[in-house]
Structures are given as structure tokens and as C-alpha cells.
């Protein structure tokens, strides 16, 4: 949809007896309040809460926004402008969504505009930019005003080409080659040579198939015989008609001809001429038409239960226990060891929810998981299943959004952004791998945790929620101990598979004895060779991507740093680049040190790319594949890598934490954790929890379907307490140890945490702002509640210097709500000061 209009659109005043309506709208901007617009009288019947409208905001901005409320009360602080255009005649955002969005804004201390920006697919948000076009009354010959050289350039550009040509402000600036071009546009406007307008383009475009069908006059046998006679000397056109009749049973089913055939089936077919197809269309033998089709086509032959499975006795018991606990609890944790068969229980529960007429949301932490699980779910639920994640195109995401609105998709499997979909009849919400930090949104606002938002959405809609994990978050397990959540446990793996054998290997000894083979201990290397000989597969986990964390001149000590961030540049061998993993800055790899000129420049440390490179040399017969952020940027890259591994075309899969997720590979018998120490020794109160979860999860990839797997953990500190708990797979003992530490030091689940980050390009301004903000917070909340400010470990990102303030608060709802109001008030106080106008404040509630 394309909408064009002038900036000023005078509206007739309504008669005194007419009802005057106003609409509060959510603008896609970080504004603390809703803005009110006047509804044109003739459109009173069209305005709908949850629908999109176009409004003018400020002098030159035209935006699409969501109607949040309709009423008869004009704003007192300003004169309401008119809504310019209505986009939807039905809501694209439901009332339950609006309620949830308000809760997100309030809880995570952000604005509704920021929530809408995160929630709506980009294709549902209209974009605009001021454009310049020749005035319809302008004639060069009769123009009374002289034009400067720059003005004439603009006029010539707008006069060239098609009628009605327009240019954006950016294009005018590029044409004139100067930064201060606006004065020429203003002058041309005053001379009535050009006018400005806003051009809004609805980004969503349906998928359209070009199809052809036989013209109606040719569908009788006599007519077709006459056509054959006419085309007797035109063999290429005759071949096209014959091919069409072979593919479309015209005489047996006239409706089949109405549906037609994809044009590409004729133009791309071997031995057929595309020009012959176009000639037949031109001569009226074939009719060409467009058909809007879904990007998720319905498979009419798709029987609902293409796969059949029977729950084991343990799974049946767990399922019955879940349903029993759902009778008096809304949230249940399914704590099952890796490989226990949680997915089969999920599928059974989803079937029951659908039979009751409800909707189901199935959340996963990573796109990597969706590829494998979606295949299984599709075989059960067919066309009722929608998939939603960030690798989808804008148009695909809109189709899922609309599919949920229309009721076409009753089950949606997706990553964290799926919690924004327009559900209005949720019966069941499943949060798989609920402990995962991937559910947390870090930047930009809203910095929400999809697990917590899903729980609140389920609460609003009266839905039951099932949380699943082999290594639950400490906060989640604590809720089962207090009785707020139900708890169901699966302690054995599905089928005959047993838990893997875990072996610790001391890298210090191997280095002292000089037996390390690159970054592999002899024990891990020997085990890999043995598994490859048995034609079994291997997963290697290294929590760092790239070839090397940094490079170093061995003569003068020079290390290349990012120009915008306080980090060293990582070396990526494949692209031969030094790259910043925070801002994306990159430069070519150097052959000699720019500081001293030495060529003695070496890589230090190792990442997944280096491991992949070494393995290809050390084990040349093995097919090695890497799965990390660098190899999975393309839309279907995850699926391709996983598919190759499932087909056993890949022998060794090297990856970052992506490989630790709930992937299920039947032939994996060995998992290697290359550098366990880098995960344990991290300055964060959740470091041990994350390490335990990661080690257990990646260990769970080894050994399925009757095969007992093996896990080798390489560490320089095998006496670490956490390893004993991992080897015994003793989550309960880990939890008891961890919860005591949290209670003693005042961390979640006993306290709530809010982290404030103060950012400015001038380090001294940022420090002063952080100190003053800290004092304001201390005055409101007390010194014991406010920690900091202090510079984080990485103190500069994208040229902004950072200072962090941590606030610890009681979990009581009233205390938390009042404290959040104090935080916002303190930030507003600083924003009002001229010195701190350019300071940025990021608020992270419940940081991970």
C-alpha cells in the first residue's frame, strides 16, 4: 500500500451535534506518554483499538502507530491534530496484547513505543521520508522567479524521467554534493517550484504467483482441435499448449483450468520456449493472472499424525503428574535429565490443548533448536503449526502474525520474539530449556526475559505454563521449593540410553609433559580417533568463536585494539580479518607490527575456527563442520549444518554454546569440552550456575538410543567443586550449594536486581553523571540498596564510556514498584540538566 499526501490537510469542523472522537496512539518512539489525535468525523466508524493509523508527529515526521484507546476527551496540553489515514479496518494488535505490552513497559522500565517497536514485525511498521516533487502548476517557460545553479540542478533532475518523479532529501543532498542543501529546497518551495510530501510504503507484500490458464473459448474439444490446426506450423507454441494440457486436466475438470498452472512451469521447462508462452498470452490463447499464495502452503495430503509414538511408562507417569498439578497450580516445572524424552510429553500435551480448542505457544531459546524440533512437530500438527523467529523474512513473519490472528496457526513454535504474537485464547505455554540466557533481550529496550513475559501472558489469559529443563534456573527451582510452582521429575533417559561417562583431563600436566597436540590432550585425541574408526560422531565445544582472541607482537608487545571499544580485535582466518565482536569494526590482518615493524606477530589463544582448522590437518579423513555465529548468519544455515550432521555427512561438529542446546543426534558418542576454565572463572554471581548448566547440557549430547556416550572435559583445575557435581549429574546438590551462596550475599531469588548503565562519549561527563545519579538513588533508596558506580570490565563500547550502578531490592511487590518509580524520577532529574542532555541511560531489570 502506498499513501501520498501533503503535510497540511485542513479538516472541516464537525457540526455541533456530531460526535467528536479522539484516539490515544502508541507512537514507535521512546515517549513516556501516549499522544492524542482527533478522529475525522467521516472516519468515526472506522477507528478500531489495535488498528494502525498514520499521523503527523512534529513538523515533518509522518508515522504509523497503534490505536490504544478511543474516547471523547481532547488533550488539555495541546491542540490535537487529525489522524491522516486509517490503515486497518480490524485490529492487528489484540486487547490481550495491549494489556501485556503495558505490563512489559511498566515492569522493565521502558516506554510503550519501545515495546511496540520490538513486538511488531518490521513489515507492519510503515516507514517514511520527506520527498521533493515538482509542483503541478510549475512551468519552466512561465516561471517568474530566477533559479540559482543549484536550484536548476534539482529541477532538471525532477524533470528527467517519468512524470511525477520524486526525490528524497538524501538524494537531493547527494545530487548537489553539499551538506547544507535544505536552503535550496526551502527556496524552491517559496517559488512554488516544488512541494514536499510524505511517501509511506506498507512494507508487507503478499507472495504472488504468476499463473496462466487456457482461455475460456478453447476449453471445448472442438475449439481445441481448431487451435491445434491453427498452430500446426508453429511447433513451439503447439508444444506449450500440449504441455499445459498434459499438466491440467481441462476436459475432466473445468475447475482445474480455472486454477491454472504456474507460468514458471512452462517458461522454465526444458525444450519449451518462454517467448512462445508470451506469444500465446498476447494472442489470447492463454490468460495470465496473479494469485496471492501463502508462504506457508497448506499440504492437503498432510494427515494429522504422520508420526506415531507411545509414551514410555515414565513419560506417562510424568504426563499424568503434570495434569494433576495443573489442577491447582498454573505453572509446573518438568525437571528431566538430558535425553529423558521431554519433547514427546510436550507433543502429547499440545494435542490435548488443541482438542480443547485452545492455542499453544512453544518457546525455544535458539533458532538452532527450531530446525530439528519443527520437523518433528510438522509431522504431527501439519498446517496448524506456525514457526516464528528472526531468520524469517519480514513478509514471512507477517504471515505468521496474521495466521495467529485468523486462527490458522493454533500452535506456534518460536524463539523469544514469539511472545509478542497476537494470541487471545492460550491454553498452554511451553518454555523449553527455561534456564537459557538466550531468552533475555539485552539491547535495545525493552530488556525483557521471554520466560517471565510468557508467564505473565499465560496469567493474563488463564493459560497453564510448563517449564522444561535438565538444569533449571536457580530462581525457578526455588519457586518449586516454596510451593508456588509444581515439580515433576524424570530421572532416567528415554529407552535404553544411560547417562554418559564423564572424564576430567588435566591440561596442566599435558603441557608440563609437552604432550598437548595443539589444543587437544592426548586422551581426547586418542578417543576421537577411536570413535571415528567406529564411524561414530563427535561434538567439540569451545565457548569462543573466531580463529584467535587476539594477535600479539612478540618483540614490542603490541596488540591491535578496536577503535570504538575497549577490547582487542579477534583474528578470523577465513576472512583474513581482525574483527571486534562488540561493534563489528574490522580491518585486514597485518603481516608486520605497525608499532616496531617486526614480523614476529603471532596469534594468541584459540577459538572455534582455529579448532576446525587444526582438526582438518590432524584428522584429514574426517569431515569437520563448525557451528557458531560466523557460520550461521544466513537464513537456513542452522538447518543445513544440522541436516548434514544428522545425515552423518559430518563426523566432527565444532561449535560455541549453540551445540550445547537440546539437539538430539543418535550417533554422537563423544563430546569434548575444550577449555572449561574460561566458563567457570567469570566475574558474575551466576558464573557457576552457567558453567554447571553448560557442562551438563553439552554432556547430554553424548549417547542416545542404547549407546553410552563419553564426555571429556579439559581443565587446568580439576579440583574445582563444580566438576564433582557435573560428573555425578547431581543438580540437587548443586542447587543446595548455590542457594546458600545467594542467600548469604543477597542475590536472586532473595533480592531483585536492577542494573543502570550510564553512557557518554566523554569519560569525565559519564563519570559525573553516574556519581550524581548514584547519590540521587541513595537519597531515595538508601546506601545499602545501591552499589557503584563502577566501570565494567569492558568499559567502552561503540565509542561510549560506560559506568554501571547496581540496585538490590526486596522482592515485595509494593517495594519494587515504588523503587522503580524512584529510579525513573532520578534519571529524569539528570536528563533535565544541560550538562547531561547527551548522556544515555540503559535500565536493565533482572539482568542475566
Give me a quick take on this structure:
This protein has 848 residues and is an alpha/beta fold.
The strand count comes to: 35
Q: Major sheet: size, sense and barrel closure? A: 7 strands, parallel
DSSP helical segment count: 26
| Overall geometry | globular
Under the CATH scheme, which class of the largest domain?
Answer: Alpha Beta
Radius of gyration: 32 Å
Average the pLDDT over all residues and give the rounded result: 86
Alpha carbon gap, first and last residue: 41 Å
Helix content: 25-40%
What's the assembly state of these chains?
single chain
Protein name: Replication restart protein PriA
Pfam families: DEAD, Helicase_C, PriA_3primeBD, PriA_C, Zn_ribbon_PriA
Domain Helicase C-terminal: 577-755
Subunit structure: Component of the replication restart primosome.
Structural notes for this entry:
By secondary structure, the protein is an alpha/beta fold. It has seven domains: 2-91, no CATH class; 129-201, Arc Repressor Mutant, subunit A, CATH 1.10.10; 216-284, no CATH class; 313-490, Rossmann fold (3-Layer(aba) Sandwich), CATH 3.40.50.300; 501-545 and 608-741, 3-Layer(aba) Sandwich (Rossmann fold); 548-605, no CATH class; 752-845, 2-Layer Sandwich (Alpha-Beta Plaits). It is 33% helix and 22% strand. The protein is built from 26 helices and 35 strands. Strands 15-16-14-17-18-13-19 form a seven-stranded parallel sheet, sandwiched between helices. It has a six-stranded parallel sheet with strand order 20-30-29-21-28-27, sandwiched between helices. A five-stranded antiparallel sheet has the order 3-2-5-4-6. A hairpin with a 2-residue loop joins strand 33 (796-797) and strand 34 (800-809). Helix 1 crosses helix 2 and helix 25 packs antiparallel against helix 26. The longest helix is centred in the last third of the chain and has 19 residues, at 763-781. The chain is globular. It starts with a strand and ends with a strand. Residues 1-11 and 298-305 have low confidence and may be disordered. Keywords: ATP-binding, DNA replication, DNA-binding, Helicase, Hydrolase, Isomerase, Metal-binding, Nucleotide-binding, Primosome, Zinc. It comes from Hymenobacter swuensis DY53. This is Replication restart protein PriA.
Amino acid at each position: 500500500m502506498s499513501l501520498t499526501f501533503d503535510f497540511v490537510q485542513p479538516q472541516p469542523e464537525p457540526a455541533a451535534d456530531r460526535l467528536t472522537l479522539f484516539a490515544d496512539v502508541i507512537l514507535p518512539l521512546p515517549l513516556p506518554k501516549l499522544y492524542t489525535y482527533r478522529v475525522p468525523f467521516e472516519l468515526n466508524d472506522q477507528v478500531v483499538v489495535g488498528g494502525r493509523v498514520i499521523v503527523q508527529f512534529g513538523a515533518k515526521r509522518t508515522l504509523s502507530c497503534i490505536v490504544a484507546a478511543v474516547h471523547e476527551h481532547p488533550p488539555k496540553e495541546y491542540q490535537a491534530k487529525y489522524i491522516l489515514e486509517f490503515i486497518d479496518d480490524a485490529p492487528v494488535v489484540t486487547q490481550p496484547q495491549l494489556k501485556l505490552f503495558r505490563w512489559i513497559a511498566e515492569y522493565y522500565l521502558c516506554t510503550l513505543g519501545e515495546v511496540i517497536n520490538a513486538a511488531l514485525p518490521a513489515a507492519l511498521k510503515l516507514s517514511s521520508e520527506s520527498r521533493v516533487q515538482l509542483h503541478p502548476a510549475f512551468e519552466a517557460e512561465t516561471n517568474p522567479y530566477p533559479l540559482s545553479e543549484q536550484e536548476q540542478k534539482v529541477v532538471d533532475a525532477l524533470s528527467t524521467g517519468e512524470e511525477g518523479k520524486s526525490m528524497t532529501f538524501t538524494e537531493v543532498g547527494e545530487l548537489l554534493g553539499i551538506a547544507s542543501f535544505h536552503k535550496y529546497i526551502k527556496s524552491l518551495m517559496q517559488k512554488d517550484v516544488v512541494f514536499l510530501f510524505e511517501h509511506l510504503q506498507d512494507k508487507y507484500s503478499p507472495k504472488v504467483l504468476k499463473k496462466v490458464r487456457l482461455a475460456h473459448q478453447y476449453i471445448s474439444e472442438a475449439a481445441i482441435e481448431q487451435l491445434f490446426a491453427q498452430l500446426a506450423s508453429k511447433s513451439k507454441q503447439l508444444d506449450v499448449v500440449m504441455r499445459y494440457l498434459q499438466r491440467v486436466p481441462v476436459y475432466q475438470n473445468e475447475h482445474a483450468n480455472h486454477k491454472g498452472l504456474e507460468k514458471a512451469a512452462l517458461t522454465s521447462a526444458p525444450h519449451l520456449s518462454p517467448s512462445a508462452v508470451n506469444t500465446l498470452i498476447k494472442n489470447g490463447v492463454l490468460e495470465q493472472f496473479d494469485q496471492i499464495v501463502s508462504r506457508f502452503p497448506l499440504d492437503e495430503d498432510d494427515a494429522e499424525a504422520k508420526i506415531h509414538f507411545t509414551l514410555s511408562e515414565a513419560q506417562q507417569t510424568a504426563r499424568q503428574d503434570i495434569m494433576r498439578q495443573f489442577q491447582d497450580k498454573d505453572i509446573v516445572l518438568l525437571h528431566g535429565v538430558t535425553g529423558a524424552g521431554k519433547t514427546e510429553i510436550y507433543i502429547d500435551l499440545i494435542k490435548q490443548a488443541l482438542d480443547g480448542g485452545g492455542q499453544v505457544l512453544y518457546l525455544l531459546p535458539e533458532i538452532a533448536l527450531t530446525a530439528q524440533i519443527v520437523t518433528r512437530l510438522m509431522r504431527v500438527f501439519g498446517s496448524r503449526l506456525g514457526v516464528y523467529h528472526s531468520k524469517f523474512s519480514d513478509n514471512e513473519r507477517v504471515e505468521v502474525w496474521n495466521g495467529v490472528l485468523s486462527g490458522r496457526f493454533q500452535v506456534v513454535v518460536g524463539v523469544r520474539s514469539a511472545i509478542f504474537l497476537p494470541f487471545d485464547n492460550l491454553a498452554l505455554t511451553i518454555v523449553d530449556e527455561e534456564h537459557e540466557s538466550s531468552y533475555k533481550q539485552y539491547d535495545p529496550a525493552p530488556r525483557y526475559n521471554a520466560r517471565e513475559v510468557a508467564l505473565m501472558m499465560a496469567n493474563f489469559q488463564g493459560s497453564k505454563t510448563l517449564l522444561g529443563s535438565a538444569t533449571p534456573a536457580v530462581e525457578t527451582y526455588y519457586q518449586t521449593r516454596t510451593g508456588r510452582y509444581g515439580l515433576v521429575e524424570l530421572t532416567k533417559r528415554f529407552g535404553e540410553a544411560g547417562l554418559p561417562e564423564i572424564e576430567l583431563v588435566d591440561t596442566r600436566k599435558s603441557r608440563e609433559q609437552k604432550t598437548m597436540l595443539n589444543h587437544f590432550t592426548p586422551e581426547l585425541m586418542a578417543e576421537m580417533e577411536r570413535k571415528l574408526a567406529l564411524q561414530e560422531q563427535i561434538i567439540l565445544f569451545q565457548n569462543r568463536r573466531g580463529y584467535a582472541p587476539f594477535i600479539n607482537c612478540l618483540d614490542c608487545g603490541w596488540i591491535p585494539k578496536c577503535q570504538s571499544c575497549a577490547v582487542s580485535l579477534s583474528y578470523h582466518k577465513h576472512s583474513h580479518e581482525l574483527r571486534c565482536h562488540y561493534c563489528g569494526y574490522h580491518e585486514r590482518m597485518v603481516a608486520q607490527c605497525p608499532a616496531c615493524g617486526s614480523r614476529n606477530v603471532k596469534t594468541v589463544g584459540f577459538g572455534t575456527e582455529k579448532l576446525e582448522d587444526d582438526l582438518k590437518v590432524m584428522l584429514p579423513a574426517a569431515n569437520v563442520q563448525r557451528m557458531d555465529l560466523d557460520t550461521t548468519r544466513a537464513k537456513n544455515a542452522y538447518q543445513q549444518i544440522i541436516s548434514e550432521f544428522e545425515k552423518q555427512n559430518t563426523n566432527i561438529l565444532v561449535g560455541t554454546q549453540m551445540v550445547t542446546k537440546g539437539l538430539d543426534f543418535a550417533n554422537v558418542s563423544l563430546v569434548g569440552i575444550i577449555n572449561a576454565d574460561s566458563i567457570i572463572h567469570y566475574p558474575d554471581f551466576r558464573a557457576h550456575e552457567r558453567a554447571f548448566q553448560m557442562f551438563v547440557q553439552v554432556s547430554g549430547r553424548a549417547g542416545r538410543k542404547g549407546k553410552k556416550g563419553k564426555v571429556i572435559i579439559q581443565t587446568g583445575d580439576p579440583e574445582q567443586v563444580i566438576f564433582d557435581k557435573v560428573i555425578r549429574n547431581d543438580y540437587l546438590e548443586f542447587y543446595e550449594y548455590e542457594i546458600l551462596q545467594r542467600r548469604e550475599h543477597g542475590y536472586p531469588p532473595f533480592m531483585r536486581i536492577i542494573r543502570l548503565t550510564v553512557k557518554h562519549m566523554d569519560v569525565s561527563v559519564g563519570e559525573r553523571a553516574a556519581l550524581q545519579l548514584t547519590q540521587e538513588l541513595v537519597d531515595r533508596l538508601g546506601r545499602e540498596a545501591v552499589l557503584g558506580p563502577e566501570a565494567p570490565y569492558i568499559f567502552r563500547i561503540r565509542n561510549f564510556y560506560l559506568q554501571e550502578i547496581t540496585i538490590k531490592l526486596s522482592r515485595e511487590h509494593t517495594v519494587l514498584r515504588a523503587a522503580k518509580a524512584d529510579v525513573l524520577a532520578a534519571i529524569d532529574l539528570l536528563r533535565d540538566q544541560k550538562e547531561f542532555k547527551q548522556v544515555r541511560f540503559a535500565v536493565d531489570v533482572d539482568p542475566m
